[in-house]
From TrEMBL:
Name the UniProt record assigns to this protein: ABC transporter substrate-binding protein
Domain Solute-binding protein family per the UniProt entry, residue ranges: 36-85
Location within or outside the cell: Periplasm
Family: Belongs to the bacterial solute-binding protein 5 family.
Chief location bin: periplasm
Length: 100
């Protein structure tokens, strides 16, 4: 399969396609120079040691079912994505979204 083909409805495996269609969004995006830009996170701060990231989340965001986008929902989504094969499985995200 080509990288642009939809493999299934899981954004972890077909994320680029779903993001391009505005079906899924990320906490942060990157511009053409690789600089981070706001996504679902409007601002972020990184600890001096680089182990902790704190995100300010965009307000008023809801999922397709009407439930609110919260810090708990973001943490759960990151942990679900980390449990699957891919780049996030090696990310230093601990329980409740904390660094490990």
């Amino acid at each position: 399969m080509a990288p642009f083909e939809i493999k299934d409805a899981d954004p972890v495996t077909g994320g680029k396609f779903f993001i391009k269609m505005d079906i899924a969004e990320t906490l942060v995006n990157a511009d053409a120079e690789g600089r981070l830009t706001p996504g679902l996170a409007t601002d972020w701060h990184v600890s001096d040691d680089g182990l902790e990231w704190r995100f300010a989340l965009r307000q008023g965001v809801t999922f397709h079912d009407g439930s609110a986008f919260t810090a708990e929902a973001a943490s759960k989504a990151l942990n679900v994505a980390r449990a699957k094969p891919g780049l996030l499985e090696t990310a230093p995200i601990g329980p409740n979204g904390t660094a490990r």
